[in-house]
């Protein structure tokens, strides 16, 4: 693409850009306003890549359109007619059961949930899940040393970031809003796309609405035609619920408030199913119980109950609303069938990590989670650990909100049916793909859909560094190098993910979305058809993946590795810090630490310094990977 002239959104000056496709990170030389918005519009008009979703489509082959599915509609109508005959018979039985008082009792979701139905953030920003011995430097025979990092600090320092991260963003509405959990600046309204009401349609057609129009609700999905039942809840109220799924004698029903419950008996009815309003759900949650003293905020799609600071809650709901609009618009442009959410999307924000964990015991490394049964996301604003690494804590806030928001949105607009057994790499990889953090002049913010995640890239570079073998042993997973089992096969068949697996899931998703766009969209369509409660084994997930992307997984490993090697990002250096201080007894204390956080390093220096000792001295050495920094620290200790 040749040179273009863009107009700065800040000061209005016109700027000539020789190569717009490589200048998304350019800023106005006069007022420093990012030029990404103006450049994106030009690239969107010239390139087959969608700058919002970041998916390149094969322009030589047509993407299936909704119109292609029209013949199925007539068949479906015939099925509905047959079903009505069946329901007419079942109706009499249902009415008789209701008259006799044999209404099924539904087990409404309790505050405590099984792990299988909670999608959580497990330190997705952590560059390296390293055992504590990695950070311990063996003392020399006649030297007094201090341990590099205590075990509890190891996980924290591994997540630390340093210096602003310049990541190009196609859409970053939160850059002026969500800068820091401590800051209480005046919220700035993000530039949401104003809702545009479509004109009255011409003669009936099945083509999707134009891309410039926000997604209109699609026709009700087939599952909404499933049978309805009368349910008596634990509170004694009788409501009309909709059967959501059945398998192995289990029946789950969707309640009017958006929760999912399980029942053994069914009293069918032809009464309509009415989703609860935002006001009804808010009243239900705040009348009594653990959220009675919570404040609330509302938007077009969200209800946020919060104990946190109001600025943090406002920033969170604006980020979530922007995420919803951007995801809906991106799916609509790619002709993925979606529909508007039936229920208000609920987010619960606790003030502190302690309150968050008191409400629901979760693993220590879980920062937030989406609870599938209640259809709510839970997170917190403040943690004592934030002060240990404020740089990463600031980045974690917008990423966590966007990550959990992605889970919730996908399971409410028809992409990921609730309780459908998606492979974990796709569940978490897609959420990470949609939630990268970035640094702006105002602080940490959401980076937008599909941007490069510098924290995950740091993890991947560390995994692929030959020096890591000497530090961590020969059993380390290395990207695209394990001949015994392709990394893709390892990832696709995982039934639980480590923090490193989060980074690898992001990497695989990013590659497929950017380089295999048409196949990836077809794969997502296939996943969206999985029914609730139907078990999928790792072998089935692997077979489905092979059908979608090919059987040569070793070759795919190499392609993923080659793609990642070419991605541009601002590296986050690992700092090897060495410390010396004379102490009483004619001894010298020596210690080291490896960290990415300047704040963490400063705190550590204060902790290891002895007030009764002599003059302290220390040096900081940057390295491209953790392994190299660790080797340098060990070598320094051994030389002294």
Automatic annotation (TrEMBL):
Comp. bias intervals (Pro residues): 192-220
Region (Disordered): 188-228
Domain of life of the source: Bacteria
InterPro entries: DUF1570 (IPR011464)
Transmembrane segments: 75-98
Keyword annotations from UniProtKB, A to Z: Membrane, Transmembrane, Transmembrane helix
Residue ranges annotated for the DUF1570 domain, each copy included: 400-534
UniProt protein name: DUF1570 domain-containing protein
Organism from which the protein derives: Singulisphaera sp. Ch08
Taxonomic lineage from the root: Bacteria, Pseudomonadati, Planctomycetota, Planctomycetia, Isosphaerales
């Amino acid at each position: 693409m040749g040179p273009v002239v863009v107009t700065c959104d800040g000061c209005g000056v016109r700027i000539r850009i020789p190569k717009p496709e490589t200048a998304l990170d350019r800023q106005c030389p006069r007022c420093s306003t990012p030029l990404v918005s103006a450049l994106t519009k030009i690239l969107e008009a010239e390139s087959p890549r969608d700058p919002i979703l970041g998916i390149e489509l094969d322009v030589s082959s047509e993407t299936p359109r909704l119109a292609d599915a029209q013949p199925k509609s007539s068949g479906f109508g015939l099925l509905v007619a047959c079903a009505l005959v069946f329901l007419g018979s079942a109706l009499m039985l249902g009415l008789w059961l209701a008259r006799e008082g044999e209404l099924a009792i539904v087990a409404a979701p309790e505050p405590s949930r099984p792990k299988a139905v909670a999608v959580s953030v497990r330190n997705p920003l952590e560059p390296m899940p390293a055992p504590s011995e990695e950070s311990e430097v063996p003392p020399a025979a006649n030297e007094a040393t201090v341990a590099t990092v205590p075990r509890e600090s190891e996980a924290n320092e591994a997540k630390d970031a340093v210096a602003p991260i310049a990541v190009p963003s196609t859409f970053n509405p939160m850059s002026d809003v969500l800068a820091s959990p401590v800051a209480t600046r005046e919220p700035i309204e993000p530039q949401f796309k104003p809702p545009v009401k479509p004109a009255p349609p011409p003669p009936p057609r099945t083509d999707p609405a134009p891309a410039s129009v926000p997604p209109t609700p699609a026709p009700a999905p087939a599952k909404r035609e499933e049978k309805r039942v009368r349910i008596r809840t634990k509170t004694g109220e009788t409501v009309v619920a909709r059967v959501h799924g059945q398998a192995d004698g289990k029946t789950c029903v969707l309640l009017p408030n958006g929760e999912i419950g399980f029942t053994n008996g069914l009293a069918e009815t032809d009464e309509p199913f009415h989703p609860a309003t935002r006001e009804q759900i808010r009243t239900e949650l705040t009348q009594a119980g653990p959220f009675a003293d919570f404040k609330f905020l509302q938007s077009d799609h969200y209800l946020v109950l919060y104990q946190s600071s109001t600025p943090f809650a406002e920033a969170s709901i604006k980020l979530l609303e922007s995420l919803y609009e951007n995801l809906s618009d991106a799916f609509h442009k790619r002709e993925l069938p979606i529909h508007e959410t039936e229920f208000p999307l609920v987010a619960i924000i606790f003030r502190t990590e302690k309150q968050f964990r008191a409400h629901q015991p979760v693993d220590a490394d879980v920062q937030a989670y989406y609870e599938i049964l209640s259809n709510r996301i839970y997170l917190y604003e403040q943690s004592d650990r934030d002060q240990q690494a404020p740089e990463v804590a600031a980045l974690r806030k917008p990423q966590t909100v966007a990550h959990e928001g992605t889970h919730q949105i996908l399971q409410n607009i028809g992409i990921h049916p609730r309780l459908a057994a998606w492979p974990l790499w796709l569940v978490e990889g897609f959420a990470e793909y949609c939630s990268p953090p970035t640094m702006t002049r105002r602080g940490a913010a959401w980076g937008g859909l599909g941007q490069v995640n510098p924290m995950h890239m740091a993890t991947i570079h560390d995994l692929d560094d030959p020096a890591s073998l000497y530090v961590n042993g020969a059993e380390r997973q290395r990207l695209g190098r394990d001949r015994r089992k392709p990394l893709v096969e390892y990832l696709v068949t995982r039934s639980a993910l480590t923090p490193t697996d989060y980074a690898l899931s992001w990497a695989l998703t990013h590659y497929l979305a950017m380089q295999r766009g048409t196949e990836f969209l077809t794969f997502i369509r296939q996943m969206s058809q999985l029914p609730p409660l139907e078990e999928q084994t790792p072998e089935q997930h692997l077979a489905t993946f092979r059908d979608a992307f090919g059987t040569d997984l070793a070759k795919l490993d190499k392609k993923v590795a080659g793609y990642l090697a070419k991605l541009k990002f601002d590296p986050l250096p690992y700092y090897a810090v060495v410390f010396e201080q004379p102490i009483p007894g004619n001894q010298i204390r020596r210690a080291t630490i490896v960290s990415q956080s300047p704040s963490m390093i400063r705190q550590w220096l204060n902790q290891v310094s002895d007030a009764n000792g002599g003059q302290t001295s220390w040096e900081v050495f940057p390295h491209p990977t953790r392994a190299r920094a660790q080797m340098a620290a060990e070598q320094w200790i051994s030389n002294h």
